Amino acid sequence: MKKLEEKIKNCRKCPLWQLRTNPVPGSGSYDAKVMFVGEAPGYWEDQQGLPFVGKAGKVLDELLNSIGLNRDEVYITNVVKCRPPNNRDPTEEEIKACSPYLDAQIDIIRPRIIVTLGRFSTSYILKKFGFAVEGISKIHGKVFEARTLFGRVYIIPMYHPAVALYRPQLRKELKEDFKKLKELLKSLKI
C-alpha cells in the first residue's frame, strides 16, 4: 500500500495534479473489513492530504461513532485522489485516470463491505462489480452482494455525508443507512 500511495502522490495522469496542494490517497486500516469510498477531496482534504476532514468528515465521524466504529478500524478513500477546482464534480476523464488506484486499494485491502458515499462512487463501484446503476435516492441503504476472486463483497450505497449539511432532512436517512451497515456487520460477525 505504501508503494501505491507513493504513486498517487506523484501522479500526473490528469490535469488535477497541477492544482492540488496535496493528493489524498486514503487513510485508515490496511486490514479494514469496511471501506468507505467518497467522490473526491474537498478544500480541507487537499490542505491536509487526508480524506473527510472537513465538515462532511465530522458528519462521517458522528455516523461511524453512532454504530461503534472509528476511523482506525475502517479505510476511507475517494474515487478521485486530487481536489477538482471549486469542489466541482469529478469528470469522466478524472475518474478514468484515477480509478485504477481505487481498484488497487480494493485488491490490497480486500474489504468485506464497501460503502459508497455519493453518486459518483456508487456509480463507479456498482459498474465495477457488474450491477446496473440507478439514482442514489432509489438505492441508498440497499445491500448488493458481489462475488470476487477474494470472496464475497457487500456494497452499500449511501448519500454523501455532505448531504446532511445542505439537506438536513436527509441526516435521518443517513443514520438509518448506517444502522443497516451495523446490522450487516453483525450478521457477518465482523
TrEMBL record:
<dbReference type="Pfam" id="PF03167">
    <property type="entry name" value="UDG"/>
</dbReference>
<keyword id="KW-0408">Iron</keyword>
<dbReference type="InterPro" id="IPR005122">
    <property type="entry name" value="Uracil-DNA_glycosylase-like"/>
</dbReference>
<dbReference type="GO" id="GO:0046872">
    <property type="term" value="F:metal ion binding"/>
</dbReference>
<feature type="domain" description="Uracil-DNA glycosylase-like">
    <location>
        <begin position="25"/>
        <end position="179"/>
    </location>
</feature>
<dbReference type="GO" id="GO:0051539">
    <property type="term" value="F:4 iron, 4 sulfur cluster binding"/>
</dbReference>
<keyword id="KW-0326">Glycosidase</keyword>
<dbReference type="GO" id="GO:0006281">
    <property type="term" value="P:DNA repair"/>
</dbReference>
<keyword id="KW-0004">4Fe-4S</keyword>
<keyword id="KW-0234">DNA repair</keyword>
<keyword id="KW-0411">Iron-sulfur</keyword>
<keyword id="KW-0227">DNA damage</keyword>
<keyword id="KW-0479">Metal-binding</keyword>
<dbReference type="InterPro" id="IPR051536">
    <property type="entry name" value="UDG_Type-4/5"/>
</dbReference>
<comment type="similarity">
    <text>Belongs to the uracil-DNA glycosylase (UDG) superfamily. Type 4 (UDGa) family.</text>
</comment>
<protein>
    <recommendedName>
        <fullName>Type-4 uracil-DNA glycosylase</fullName>
        <ecNumber>3.2.2.27</ecNumber>
    </recommendedName>
</protein>
<dbReference type="InterPro" id="IPR036895">
    <property type="entry name" value="Uracil-DNA_glycosylase-like_sf"/>
</dbReference>
<dbReference type="InterPro" id="IPR053423">
    <property type="entry name" value="Type-4_UDG"/>
</dbReference>
<keyword id="KW-0378">Hydrolase</keyword>
<dbReference type="GO" id="GO:0004844">
    <property type="term" value="F:uracil DNA N-glycosylase activity"/>
</dbReference>
<dbReference type="InterPro" id="IPR005273">
    <property type="entry name" value="Ura-DNA_glyco_family4"/>
</dbReference>
